Amino acid sequence: MNRFFFFLTIIGVPLSLIGSFMHWSPILMFVLNCITIIGLASYMGRATESLAIVTGPSIGGLLNATFGNAVELIIAILSLKAGLLNVVMASITGSILGNLLLVGGLSFFVGGLKYKRQRFSVFEARHNAGLLIFSIVVSFVFPDVFSTRLEDNATHILSIAISIIMILIYLFALFFRLVTHRGVYKGQDDDHNHVEEDEVPEWSGVRAIIVLAVSTLFVALISENLVHTFEPVAKSFGWSELFIGIIIVAIVGNAAEHASAILMAYKNKMGIAVEIAIGSSLQVAMFVAPVLVLVSVFFPTFMPLTFTIPELVAMVLSVVLIISLTTDGDTNWFEGAVLLATYIIMGIGFYLL
Amino acid sequence: MNRFFFFLTIIGVPLSLIGSFMHWSPILMFVLNCITIIGLASYMGRATESLAIVTGPSIGGLLNATFGNAVELIIAILSLKAGLLNVVMASITGSILGNLLLVGGLSFFVGGLKYKRQRFSVFEARHNAGLLIFSIVVSFVFPDVFSTRLEDNATHILSIAISIIMILIYLFALFFRLVTHRGVYKGQDDDHNHVEEDEVPEWSGVRAIIVLAVSTLFVALISENLVHTFEPVAKSFGWSELFIGIIIVAIVGNAAEHASAILMAYKNKMGIAVEIAIGSSLQVAMFVAPVLVLVSVFFPTFMPLTFTIPELVAMVLSVVLIISLTTDGDTNWFEGAVLLATYIIMGIGFYLL
Amino acid sequence: MNRFFFFLTIIGVPLSLIGSFMHWSPILMFVLNCITIIGLASYMGRATESLAIVTGPSIGGLLNATFGNAVELIIAILSLKAGLLNVVMASITGSILGNLLLVGGLSFFVGGLKYKRQRFSVFEARHNAGLLIFSIVVSFVFPDVFSTRLEDNATHILSIAISIIMILIYLFALFFRLVTHRGVYKGQDDDHNHVEEDEVPEWSGVRAIIVLAVSTLFVALISENLVHTFEPVAKSFGWSELFIGIIIVAIVGNAAEHASAILMAYKNKMGIAVEIAIGSSLQVAMFVAPVLVLVSVFFPTFMPLTFTIPELVAMVLSVVLIISLTTDGDTNWFEGAVLLATYIIMGIGFYLL
């Protein structure tokens, strides 16, 4: 697996840079950039994990939470700077849908083919359910409903206020899990997933920082190019910007996470798989999205926290579905199939839009 | 009970046929046809159950699932052929509302008058909750939201795609319950409901097939007549087509099921009662509705999977309510009263519409 | 605490009466009236509780349920008489939001600062969840969706029908809890909250009735004045009527309850705190709101059961959030923070509206 990502990176990075210099065709560059970013993202993930082990659980959790979505954040900020507001909103939607339905669905399905029932902590599931409801159902639906009755200016104030509150709650959630209630809910259920082995970091602290810095730099460089291929690619294939954001950018930005979640499910560590699927969605909703809103204050076009109705409905439906499937702390192949079916339905819907 | 249905049938069938020949008044024919179909439906139900016991649980489950809603499917296809699109959509809605709220409510209420608390498998309840969310909340809401933003052609493609996916998931669900996870979740809770006695079929296989074939034939014949009485009856009573579909057709199409669910609740076999109430709704949502969409491709008027907003809201609210009442695997008279109250509210709403 | 309310009352009542006589400025009178009512409400609450203990649990429960929201009901009826329809609807919304989010949130948060985990009966939580869904999600959403498709007259009939059904279900709920299923679900979970100590009433029956009668009389008098200050105050501060109703009236009408819920949470009697927070919301939704609809039949302007979309969405989101946080029968400071964050978000939204 690591070897595969190594090849993607070692071949992708130089080709991407050469290509951008030589002005290769947008479609070729789009594919090339996507592949390279997938490779680099795996390095960022591994570096973050090593750092997290070195620095201990509290700071490690914070690092994981912040850098876990660094690729998405970078692509989104660069797109925002380029004025591609719709693509950014769509990629947030796509990231959430992709993590909940595609990553979750594949994990449950693939894991379920090997094991009849897979279990994970009911407490984690409920904690996450509450946060999904708060971040997606409350914080995303609310400004959408109010914005149609507010002037633009008031919508902006509301978006900024909600974004600040969401980031605070996100930090509270980390504080809750890593400090005040660390281990409080443990052992309550037989979550053999959470046996914390003495983990050995893959890389030393210094090496991890260097890898993280270099790969982040390259991701930023290549994302810059990637963003500019969106429009010509969309035109060539007849895709909407929405579809590019929701399906393509979301898959590219999360490819490394996708792979590791499914691997964990296959190893019967369903707790970690669920944590990646739902946890990533929460990070995007509670951290990436509000940060983008706040960053956009300094950009020419402000990004209000108002998704289009189809985006909003798709996210809310996905949240309701995943909650109804996960609150029992028990998964099987059929639940995976239902999630994947929903992802396909939504993919078709957004393609037709 | 059986004797009562025997009388309905033996008197109803000849009168219905004579009446249609003699062109009796539409209102008389409407009542006559409804009563006859209720009688015949009970025969179809008994024949299917006998066949299911003879063929064993796997094929039996499939038979039950397919023929359980045969009457509704026949009435719906004939209405569709007659171009009564609204009546068909309304009868799907009514069937789902009727099963969840009326059958469920009466079962909980009547059973609850005799027993303080009635229990059923929590696992079944959660499995069904996931499917209700998938089929009604996701698959019905999604095309409605998208259709206002899509051209008719794209809405049709989306409806067909969703219908195919729903039927696949429906088959997967049968496969999951009858094959891969048969008995996996059993004994987990003290569901004394599910003690499988050695069941003896009422009729032999051959006799059951004959009864099934003959009664299906008559149902088809009489439904053909019934469909043509809708318009004149609606005019006479000042009812809307919506009301006829939602209340009348739904009650007629499900009368036999209603009776047996309540009987089971009264015998404290709440697991079976819930299975009938929620299971029937799921069959209508995941099998009858998508089959009608696919069948309508060959008819002059295509039936997209887009319900009216009142229909959609009523279904979604019912699903949310029944899930909130059943996830604890415990029912009582008060929960039944709440379901019945909701049915009455919705009935009044649709009557006024 | 009681001393504090004593001071509020002893100073507030004469000043309020003098002020109304001397025509002091509306803003001063608004503040004065609000403070006085908070003081009087605490006396009404204590009198009701004493009476409830004297009369025994069944009639006591009924008394508590009826007089628990007497202040709100009085303010609302007087506002309705003055034609302030929007303020009344907004105060219902505000009362529900305030109880669920502010009272619930503060209880969970304050209690959670002292105790790592606080528990309450899972059964109560689920019973309440079902009622919240029935009353707010079903009974409030349904007329809103239908009213846009109905003539005014039909909307009125629907509102009246739903109101009658809600009051019936409310009475059934009392009958269920106090008579048929009293204690049935007890001891099932380790709810040490519900240990019924032999309670001693603060006041004798006669004295309680006198206190209740006198304080109710004064509340009515002062509310009459309060209602007429709404318009000038709204103008002076640039607040909308919606904001006054949702935030100000709701806080004033529920101040005494707020205080006692938080006190109970701090004493680790989370069961009672939750009962106040969710129970009060249910009383407002299932009793106060429908009674107002029925009473308004005799007033010049009829009050249909149709909230504005922002009000409706805010209530539904709050219900979904509180259910997702309470169904596990376990609270902590973080869940409190999430509820408070949601209240702040909604407060900002309604302020901007």
Automatic annotation (TrEMBL), chains A, B, C:
<keyword id="KW-0109">Calcium transport</keyword>
<comment type="function">
    <text>Ca(+)/H(+) antiporter that extrudes calcium in exchange for external protons.</text>
</comment>
<feature type="transmembrane region" description="Helical">
    <location>
        <begin position="242"/>
        <end position="264"/>
    </location>
</feature>
<feature type="transmembrane region" description="Helical">
    <location>
        <begin position="276"/>
        <end position="299"/>
    </location>
</feature>
<feature type="transmembrane region" description="Helical">
    <location>
        <begin position="205"/>
        <end position="222"/>
    </location>
</feature>
<feature type="transmembrane region" description="Helical">
    <location>
        <begin position="84"/>
        <end position="113"/>
    </location>
</feature>
<feature type="domain" description="Sodium/calcium exchanger membrane region">
    <location>
        <begin position="27"/>
        <end position="178"/>
    </location>
</feature>
<keyword id="KW-0050">Antiport</keyword>
<dbReference type="InterPro" id="IPR004837">
    <property type="entry name" value="NaCa_Exmemb"/>
</dbReference>
<keyword id="KW-0406">Ion transport</keyword>
<dbReference type="InterPro" id="IPR004713">
    <property type="entry name" value="CaH_exchang"/>
</dbReference>
<dbReference type="GO" id="GO:0015369">
    <property type="term" value="F:calcium:proton antiporter activity"/>
</dbReference>
<dbReference type="InterPro" id="IPR004798">
    <property type="entry name" value="CAX-like"/>
</dbReference>
<keyword id="KW-1133">Transmembrane helix</keyword>
<keyword id="KW-0472">Membrane</keyword>
<dbReference type="GO" id="GO:0006874">
    <property type="term" value="P:intracellular calcium ion homeostasis"/>
</dbReference>
<protein>
    <recommendedName>
        <fullName>Ca(2+)/H(+) antiporter</fullName>
    </recommendedName>
</protein>
<feature type="transmembrane region" description="Helical">
    <location>
        <begin position="51"/>
        <end position="78"/>
    </location>
</feature>
<comment type="similarity">
    <text>Belongs to the Ca(2+):cation antiporter (CaCA) (TC 2.A.19) family.</text>
</comment>
<feature type="transmembrane region" description="Helical">
    <location>
        <begin position="154"/>
        <end position="176"/>
    </location>
</feature>
<feature type="domain" description="Sodium/calcium exchanger membrane region">
    <location>
        <begin position="208"/>
        <end position="346"/>
    </location>
</feature>
<keyword id="KW-0106">Calcium</keyword>
<keyword id="KW-0813">Transport</keyword>
<dbReference type="GO" id="GO:0012505">
    <property type="term" value="C:endomembrane system"/>
</dbReference>
<dbReference type="GO" id="GO:0016020">
    <property type="term" value="C:membrane"/>
</dbReference>
<feature type="transmembrane region" description="Helical">
    <location>
        <begin position="333"/>
        <end position="352"/>
    </location>
</feature>
<feature type="transmembrane region" description="Helical">
    <location>
        <begin position="305"/>
        <end position="326"/>
    </location>
</feature>
<dbReference type="InterPro" id="IPR044880">
    <property type="entry name" value="NCX_ion-bd_dom_sf"/>
</dbReference>
<dbReference type="Pfam" id="PF01699">
    <property type="entry name" value="Na_Ca_ex"/>
</dbReference>
<keyword id="KW-0812">Transmembrane</keyword>
<feature type="transmembrane region" description="Helical">
    <location>
        <begin position="125"/>
        <end position="142"/>
    </location>
</feature>
<feature type="transmembrane region" description="Helical">
    <location>
        <begin position="26"/>
        <end position="44"/>
    </location>
</feature>
